[in-house]
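Teaching assistant here, posting this on the class forum so everyone can see the example we discussed in section. The complex has two components, and the goal was to see what a joint structure prediction looks like when all of them are supplied at once.
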Amino acid sequence: MEKKPDAKSMADVIGGKKESFESEYIRFDALSALVIDDIGAMRHALRSQLQWMGMNRIKCVADAEEALDQIENNTYDLILCDYNLNKATSGQHFLEHLRHEHLLSAKTIFVMVTAEAEYAFVANAVEFAPDDYILKPCPEKKLRARLERQFDRRNFLLPALTAMDEKNYLQVVSECDRLMAMVDNERWLLAALRLKAEALLALNDTTDLLKTYEQALAIRDNVPWVKMGIARARMLLNEPEEAEKMTREIIADNPNYVAAYELLAEIRKSQNDEEAAHELMAQSAKILPTAKRFRSTAESAFLLGKLDEAKTLSESAIRMSSGSMTERPDDYLSLAQIQTDLGDHQAAIQTLEKSARKFEEKGSFGIAKNAILAQAYADAGDTAAAKKLLERSQRLMTSESGSTALNALGKAAFKVGDPILGLKMLTQAVQSSGEERERIARHVTKSMQDTGQQDKIDEVIDAGQKRILVLVEGAKKSMHVAQFEEAYSKVLEALEIQQDNIEALLAAAQLHLLWLKQEGMNEDVKERAKAYLATLDKLVPHNEKVMGFYRFYNQLTGE
Amino acid sequence: MEKELSVLVIHDIKNSLALLEADLEQLNHRPDMPEEAHKAYQRCIELKNRLISFLTLYKHEQGRLKPNLAEIELSEFLEDMIAGSQSVTMAGKHGHAIEVTVDEGRIRIAPGVKHKGIATLDEYLLDLALESALNNAVRYAASKVDIWFEQDADSVTFFVQDDGPGLNTSETQADKPSSTGVGLSLCNAVTEAHGGGTVSLSNAAEGGALFMMGFRLVG
């Protein structure tokens, strides 16, 4: 093993001069910050504290919407976010939204500011925890000490974090390896291992992923994220029993770690044990109630036919997100569908009327809203009204209409007595479901069971998919014998059936890369290759295959 | 209804105090800050600490003080605590500077400890308890206060020692009103919430007062 430099030379390596945390080490004057707090006096106080540390690029905003706007248009070194943003949105929701949508730079340090000591419960129970949290009032010196620790860690990891932001995951891995060889500090080693694992996950490199987490486990055997990582890697390696064992260990040690319940639910789902998966999700919603947890638990209850439970959960999701940035039109649609299925047409109509006051009737929302109304009227025996609503729903359809809306439309068609339209819509719902295929297939299956179409389920779920597979196989054969035009026409046909079919898109990208390689640079082919890669990157971000194609493309085009 | 009302009132007082403290902190950063402003800031901090202590004790009496456990790197934690301690800041502003340091020479970690220097505790509660001990120590210290910890396989103990006159001397009783009562009850509540331990305040062999707070750790 390489000899590790001592702490002092380590500090030299990373550009600082000192051993722990005296003021000149962290150049606060070079850092920018975003302060999010709904109380003006608190914003003012936090701004002053940051100014005393030497920061001068400080932006203060009062709510999550404004903050989102800032984060989308700027990169901040530090975000100080109040936990109680307003009645509806908590800082934790906001953070989860940011991480989920990949809006935060890897270099940004997110610190939750809270008046409630209880926040620690949240921070210790979730996977999307902030980098740190402080209790207010927090005097400047204390804030400074905490921030210095955070920036210390960030500065150490900086080359790897930069590569992370550039999505250069191979570089992240090699930078982390280089940095780890230089330190003994366990916390920094763990931080580097965690980042490395994130990059390996993005590269889909499952063998090294497991190794990396096991390295972390050797340092600390009771940190939830390490065990979660191992469980996830085991899942990717298709070892659900091992994954479950690890997840159970996490729950035994940390009974409130909701992320573990959610992972266990995923494992159960992969084993087609929907009932158990639902129980686990309900448990996680009980420990840490959020609109998102209620939403997904309501969905699993609905799919299992537990309509009363689904209704309560769905109502909770609406109540918790009402007026916040996590408010979704889909929540009203789900509730109305549940109410319709429960036979409470009046309640369904009321729910949809309420939703119409909040959201514009267009796109998938408009289609689904009218389709569910049509179902309610059809069930109530008013076929004429139902037919009108069904037509209205159909008129809103475009080629982009979402699978969930098509499912509602199909169900309505069956209820109104138009089985041909019903089959067509449900088939299309499955075909355009992309990455969500399994979920949509379950919804479509339920719609067909509810409307007495059990005998046609297989036909609808599998329609198109077999044809696509045949076409993709054909395209692959053609491209490997350099018949590019022919391969291209097959891929196009497959994409016509389902424009976001991943297999077809992968084949399309691969075909164009081989085309460029063998027949030289051709602007059209190049542009198409680029477009397919961009579509794939959007549909399956961080996909190893797509990343490989990108590297291939860059080598070919020198871009 | 009455209970709900008092919860609201206390919440409001806590928030108002936080804002008042922030205002006074601002004032204290002015170069021309008068001595009165400094005193007001100090009083505000004391008031806030007292309120938080009482609330914590009340919660403990109700059996609702539940620790939020997380791993703490003990040396780092103590360094940060001193760096951010208002008691230390305030003591410094009183004219006679008191040096507060983590005494690394006295940190002892038993060979059998699996995660050396790391313990699973509620950081917030620990900070609250130690800050109150530190506050007491800087009030009586002549020039310095040392903090350190000792870790064994199933326990961790924190120490705060000052170089003041020690306990039960005329000076401690006559001059400064003692807040030790509440301080020690708070520390007891914090250790009990963690599942038990020992809290004591005694005279150190070298002179001065020695505060000890031990946590029994499970697992």
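For the discussion questions: The longest strand of chain A covers residues 109-114. The interface with chain B takes residues 20-21, 39, 41-42, 44-45, 48-49, 52, 115, 117-118, 120-121, 123-124, 135-146, 149, 187, 220, 222-223, 253 of chain A (CB under 8 Å). Think about how each of these relates to the inputs above.
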